[in-house]
Amino acid sequence: MLPFVPPAESFHHQGKTLRYTRLGRGDPILLIHGLSGSGQWWRSNILALAQKHEVFVVDLVGYGQSRRQKSVSVTENAELLAAWMEALELRQATVIGHSLGGHVATRLVSLVPERISHLVLVSATGLLKGHIARLALKLPRAGVSGRISFLPRIMLDSARAGLPNLWRSGRSLLTDDVSELLPLMQVRTLVVWGARDNLVPPTLGQQLAGAIVGAQYREIRGAGHVPMVDKPEEFNALVLEFLEQVN
Predict the structure, then answer these.
(1) What is the pLDDT of residue 141?
(2) Mean pLDDT of all residues belonging to the chain
(3) What gap in Å lies between CA 164 and CA 62, rounded to an integer?
(4) Less CB within 10 Å around the terminal CB: N or C of the chain?
(5) How many beta carbons lie within 10 A of that of residue 196, not counting itself?
């Protein structure tokens, strides 16, 4: 596992600060964590991806190294990341988003499609509007569907973010729907899901992939809602295979 150093770089835009780190060389890969998460959730993936790519790991506003700020909506996160990509002149980028991060990534593609060549949606939200009650019932089981040793990281990042930030992000996640964007997307897309995901079920992943022209769908056996942590070798292999495919 790669020793993960705290992000050393900051991007300031309209009163918000985005913290990020980078590693490797090549076409850029942007990693976006999910609700209650941080860039630390990608520790088992960064080194494999950085062999041929420059990997950027961001901490969304209100989380990880970007905490001590009020979290913002899905759309505002996408707008901030779009401004950041433009400032760094990132092109031919692969955007990989987990859960809320996948939701943000979908909005990001709609804002700067010319800068994004590949999209990987990992247990992504975006189609949960109207599923609030069912989601709440599944929360108690979500933490035990994957790697138990990861629970302390989840709890630490959640505590650091704080309930107000989690509430704001969760409310935005559950009221924003990306259904209308999906058929319009032109970017090559891979949808990855954990077969044991009790929080955002694989049926929603299949629905998500089915709405995006040409999207590939892959399930990882034995993985829960955080497949890149639960089964990192399988996850890394799927992503790298996808990136190496000829269009």
Answers:
(1) 47
(2) 89
(3) 10
(4) C
(5) 21
CA separation, residue 84 to residues 16, 167, 169, 205 (Å): 11, 25, 20, 28
Sheet order of strands, 116-122 included: 9-13, 16-23, 54-59, 28-32, 93-98, 116-122, 188-194, 216-220
pLDDT (0 to 100) of residue 137: 40
- At 243, list the tokens: 């990136």
Q: How far apart are CA 153 and CA 165, in angstroms?
A: 17
Q: Retrieve residue 218's tokens.
A: 């892959």
Tell me if residue 101 falls in helix, strand or coil.
Answer: helix
CATH 3.40.50.1820 fits 9-242, yes or no: yes
CA neighbor of 143 nearest in space, from 212, 76, 230, 217: 230
pLDDT in tens, 174-233: 899 999 999 999 999 999 999 999 888 899 999 999 999 999 999 999 999 999 999 999
Contact by Cβ (8 Å): 66, 157 = no
| CA 119 – CA 51 distance, rounded (Å) | 19
Q: Encoding tokens for residue 41?
A: 């959730």
**Residue 1 pLDDT exceeds 50:** no
Structure-block tokens of residue 241: 């295979």
| C-alpha to C-alpha distance for 61 and 42, rounded to whole angstroms | 17
Is residue 61 within 8 Å of 77, Cβ to Cβ? yes
pLDDT, tens only, 117-127 = 999 999 999 98
Task: Answer yes or no: is pLDDT of 145 > 70.
Answer: no
- Burial-class residue 13 by CB neighbours within 10 Å (0-12, 13-18, 19+): middle
